[in-house]
Design goal:
Elements: E1 2-14, E2 18-23, H1 26-39, E3 46-52, E4 55-64, E5 67-72, H2 74-79, E6 87-94
Antiparallel strand pairs: 1-2, 1-6, 2-5, 3-4, 3-6, 4-5
Length: 97
């Protein structure tokens, strides 16, 4: 399993649904891109386990503009008091390796 720790700022992107996301820093996105072929299940989606604070969840990274976005579920936002513009420390583990 590949694991990455990074800091980011929560943004809103109105793609398929209005959600809160954290953009992976370029250095993490580059590493994930190397692993993508081995783990993607279609459309460039990358299965991951993510953690912010004490909350861990399973989701998928979305490819966007040459990088990746990590969706932050509403339950995670509530549990960790996260809003748009919040600075967060994130751990992402790529699943399926």
């Amino acid at each position: 399993m590949a694991e990455f720790d990074f800091d980011g700022v929560v943004i809103e992107w109105r793609g398929p649904a209005p959600y809160a996301y954290v953009a992976l820093p370029d250095w993490v996105a580059d590493e994930v891109a190397v692993l993508a072929r081995a783990v993607t299940y279609g459309w460039g989606m990358i299965p991951v386990q993510a953690q912010i604070g004490d909350t861990t969840w399973t989701t998928s990274l979305f490819p966007k503009d040459g990088g990746y976005l990590l969706p932050i579920k509403v339950a995670v936002q509530r549990a960790e008091s996260i809003g748009i513009g919040s600075a967060v420390a994130v751990t992402v583990s790529v699943l399926g390796l």
